[in-house]
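3.2 Worked example (two chains)
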Amino acid sequence: MLKKSKKKNVLEAIALTVDAVQGEKSESVEKLAVDKDLIALAVKMSITAQKYASTDGSLSGDTEERYFAVQAGLNKKGKESWSEGYIGWWANEGDCTSKKSPEGSIKLTKISSAKQDGKIVRVKHKSGDSSAELGVVLPADEKAAEWAAVFKELLNLVRKRQEKK
C-alpha cells in the first residue's frame, strides 16, 4: 500500500502528465492506451538517488543526491508532448513538484539505452555529436534492476508513440 505522501506524488505526477496526453490529442484507442501506460511508467520513474555523469565512458568521482523524474516536454506549439519528453533531475522532490526547471535533463528520444550494472543504471545518450553517459546509483542491485526495466519499457513506449504519429 502506498504511503500518503507517495499517493500525493503519484496524483501530482498524473496531473502533470495528463496535459501531455491532451496536448497530443491522441486519435486512436491504441495511442490512448500507450499514453496511459506512459503516465503510469513516468510515475514509477520518480526516485531520489545518487547521480554522476561522464562523457568519457567512465563513471567515477563524487556523486550527489538528486530527485529524478520523467516528464512530458513542450512541442513547437507550446503544448506538452511525450515526443519532447525528458528525464530530469532536481536537488530535491520539492523543486520538481513546484515546477522549477531541472538542474539537468536528457530528452528521451536521445537515449539509446538504460542498463543495470550492479547498483548503477547507465543511461547512454547523444549529447551533440558525441555520446555521453549518466550514472544513476540506487540503494541496491534489485532497485537498480527494477528501475532500469521500467525505464526501458518507458523508452520503448515513447518510440512506439513516435511511430504512431
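3.2.1 Second chain
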Amino acid sequence: MNQYMPFITDFLSEVGTPLSALIITIITGYIIRKIVFIRLSRWSRSTKTEIDDIIIGALKGPIIIWFLMLGIFFALKTSKLTDGVVFIINKLLLILGILSITVVLANISSRLIKVFSQRVDSALPVTSLTQNISRIIILLFIYIIFSEYVRNIIYNNIRIM
C-alpha cells in the first residue's frame, strides 16, 4: 500500500484541486441561482409589465451553463496544464460565453416582439417566422461583430500548437 501513496497523492494534487474547484463553482452557481431567482420572481410578480418575466425566464437556464464555464475556468487556473492549452481553452470558453449571451438576447427579443405585438390592435399577427427573423438578425449582428475576433483567436492559436 505504501508503494502506491506517492502516486495517489500526485493524482489527487493534479486532478483533485481542479475537480474540486469545478464542483464548488457549480454548486455555488446552483445556490446563487436559487436565491437570486426566488427573489427576482417575487419582485417580478409585483410589476405590471411582462418584460421582467421574459428576461428572468430567458436567464434562468443559461446561468447554470455560465457557472459551468466559470468552473472550467477556475479548474484550468488550478490545473497543471501547459499555458498554451489553458490559453486555447480560455478563448474557447470566451467564444462559448459570447454565443450563449447572443442566444439569450435573441430569445429575449423574440419574446418581446411577441408580447408587444399582441398589445397593438392594428398589427398583423406575429408568427414564429417573425420571431425567428428577429433571432436571425441578432445572431447575424453578433456574428459580424465577433467574427474577426474569433477568426484571429483561432488562427493565432493554431500556430502556437
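3.3 Remarks
The chain has a mean pLDDT of 80.
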